[in-house]
Specification:
The chain is mostly beta strands. It is built from one helix and four strands. The longest helix is centred in the N-terminal third of the chain and has 4 residues. About 5% of the residues are buried.
C-alpha cells in the first residue's frame, strides 16, 4: 500500500505565489509579502502602521 502525502486545502493554488518586498513608509522596515496580498492593507510588524500595498 502506497501512502500519499496530504496537503491543506488550497495548497496547489498557493504553492507558486511569488514573494514581494514592501517598505513601510513610516519606519522604513522592509517586509516580504505574498503576491496575492498586493492591493490589500497590511500592518507593519515593526511599528504597527498601516501599509497600502497597492501603492508599493
Amino acid at each position: 500500500m502506497t501512502e500519499q502525502k496530504q496537503h491543506c486545502p488550497g495548497f496547489e493554488a498557493n504553492k507558486t505565489l511569488a514573494e514581494v518586498k514592501v517598505k513601510c513608509p513610516a519606519c522604513g522596515k522592509e517586509m516580504e509579502i505574498f503576491a496575492d496580498e498586493l492591493g490589500k492593507t497590511i500592518k507593519c510588524a515593526a511599528c504597527g502602521a498601516s501599509i497600502e500595498t497597492k501603492k508599493c
